[in-house]
Automatic annotation (TrEMBL):
Protein name: Potassium voltage-gated channel, subfamily H (eag-related), member 6a
GO biological process per UniProt: membrane repolarization during cardiac muscle cell action potential; regulation of heart rate by cardiac conduction; regulation of ventricular cardiac muscle cell membrane repolarization
Superkingdom of the source species: Eukaryota
Keywords tagged on the record: Cell membrane, Ion channel, Ion transport, Membrane, Potassium, Potassium channel, Potassium transport, Transmembrane, Transmembrane helix, Transport, Voltage-gated channel
The organism's taxonomic lineage, starting at the top: Eukaryota, Metazoa, Chordata, Craniata, Vertebrata
Annotated localization: Cell membrane
SUPFAM superfamilies with a match to the protein in the record: Voltage-gated potassium channels
Limits of the Ion transport domain: 51-317
Name of encoding gene: kcnh6a
Length: 363
C-alpha cells in the first residue's frame, strides 16, 4: 500500500513539473538514469530552465504589449529631441527595454548550452550538436528580436529616425511565434484555452489600436502641413472633448490616455461588430483600415466562439457519459440484488474511479 501511494505521489509531482515546464520536450519516463552531460550544459527539464522560460515568457508578454504602444504613442519628434539632449537613459522605458534586450541575449547564450531530445528520444548534451540544432531552429528569430535597434541608431540625426525606430522595435514581436508553440501544450486544458483565446483577442485589439492611432496621426499631421481640412478621427476627438490641436504647440490636443482609450474602444467595437459610430473613420486610409479590422474581427469572432462552444460541449459530454455509466451501475446492482453495504461501496468506487481515470472507466 505504501509503495502504491509513493508511486501516486511521484506521478503527481512529475505531472505538475510537466505542466509548469514550458519546454517542448520532456525526458521520457522510462529513462530513469541521469544522462551524461558536458560541463556548463543545462538540462532542458531542470528547474532552472523551467523558471528561466517563465521569466522569458513574461518579458515577451511585456514586449508584445509595450513595444507597439511605445512605437505608436510615445515615439515622436519631441521625444526624439528630448532623448538627444537628455540622453538615452532619461526615459525609464528605455532602460527597461535595454534590460529586456540584455535578457534576450542571455537567453540566446543559454539556448546554446541547453540539451534537447532528438528523434530517438535521446537527450543530446554535446555542445556542437546543440549549437547546430539551435542554428537550424530558432536562432535567427531570437537574434533579430534581441538586437537593440533604437540604441544602435541613437543620435543618428536623420529625419526618419523616429519612424525607423518604431518599425524596427516591432521586430521583437517575432518571439511570440516561439512562445505560441510552447503554450500549445496547454491546449488540452479547457480553461487554459479560453484564457489564451481571450488574451489573444485583447492583444490583437491592442495592436490594431496602435495602428489606428498611427494612421490618424499621419492623417492629421499631413493635413496640417498642406492646410487641408481636418476631418480625421483625432480632430473629431479633439473637438468632442474640447482639447483642440494647435499647430504651434506640439503638446496640444487630447492626452495620450484619451487617444489610446478611444483607439482601443474603436478596435474592440469593430472586432466584435457592435460599433456605435461615435468613433468613425472619415479619410480613405481610415476607412480601408476599418474594413481590414472588420474582416479580422469576423475571423476571430468565429474562431474564438467556435472554440468556446466546442469546449463547453466537451465538458457537457463528459458529464453525460458519467451519468450514463452511473445509471448502468445502478441497473446492475438492482438486477443482481446486491446488498446495501456492498452497493454503497461499489457506487463510491465507481465515482472515485471516474474522477481518477475518466478516460478509462467513463467511456
Amino acid at each position: 500500500m505504501e509503495s502504491v501511494l509513493g508511486r501516486d505521489q511521484s506521478s503527481i509531482r512529475v505531472s505538475w513539473k510537466s505542466v509548469l515546464s514550458l519546454g517542448a520536450d520532456v525526458l521520457p519516463e522510462y529513462k530513469l538514469q541521469a544522462p551524461r552531460i558536458h560541463k556548463w550544459t543545462i538540462l532542458h527539464y531542470s528547474p532552472f530552465k523551467a523558471v528561466w522560460d517563465w521569466v522569458i515568457l513574461l518579458l515577451v508578454i511585456y514586449t508584445a504589449v509595450f513595444t507597439p504602444y511605445s512605437a505608436a504613442f510615445l515615439l515622436n519628434e519631441v521625444e526624439e529631441q528630448r532623448r538627444r539632449t537628455c540622453g538615452y537613459t532619461c526615459n525609464p522605458l528605455n532602460v527597461v527595454d535595454l534590460v529586456v534586450d540584455v535578457m534576450f541575449i542571455v537567453d540566446i547564450l543559454i539556448n546554446f548550452r541547453t540539451t534537447y531530445v532528438n528523434h530517438n528520444d535521446e537527450v543530446v548534451s554535446h555542445p556542437g550538436r546543440i549549437a547546430q540544432h539551435y542554428f537550424k531552429g530558432w536562432f535567427l528569430i531570437d537574434i533579430v528580436a534581441a538586437i537593440p535597434f533604437d540604441l544602435l541608431i541613437f543620435r543618428s540625426g536623420s529625419e526618419e529616425t523616429t519612424t525607423l525606430i518604431g518599425l524596427l522595435k516591432t521586430a521583437r514581436l517575432l518571439r511570440l511565434v516561439r512562445v505560441a508553440r510552447k503554450l500549445d501544450r496547454y491546449s488540452e486544458y479547457g480553461a487554459a484555452v479560453l484564457f489564451l483565446l481571450m488574451c489573444t483577442f485583447a492583444l490583437i485589439a491592442h495592436w490594431l489600436a496602435c495602428i489606428w492611432y498611427a494612421i490618424g496621426n499621419v492623417e492629421r499631421t499631413s493635413s496640417a502641413r498642406i492646410g487641408g481640412m481636418k476631418i480625421g478621427w483625432l480632430d473629431n476627438l479633439a473637438e468632442q472633448i474640447g482639447k483642440q490641436y494647435n499647430d504651434s504647440d506640439e503638446a496640444s490636443g487630447p492626452s495620450i490616455k484619451d487617444k489610446y482609450v478611444t483607439a482601443l474602444y474603436f478596435t474592440f467595437s469593430s472586432l466584435t461588430s457592435v460599433g456605435f459610430g461615435n468613433v468613425s473613420p472619415n479619410t480613405n486610409p481610415e476607412k480601408i483600415f476599418s474594413i481590414c479590422v472588420m474582416l479580422i474581427g469576423s475571423l476571430m469572432y468565429a474562431s474564438i466562439f467556435g472554440n468556446v462552444s466546442a469546449i463547453i460541449q466537451r465538458l457537457y459530454s463528459g458529464t453525460a457519459r458519467y451519468h450514463t455509466q452511473m445509471l448502468r451501475v445502478k441497473e446492475f446492482i438492482r438486477f443482481h440484488q446486491i446488498p446495501g453495504g456492498l452497493r454503497q461501496r461499489l457506487e463510491e468506487y465507481f465515482q472515485h474511479a471516474c474522477i481518477a481515470a475518466p478516460l478509462i472507466l467513463c467511456v
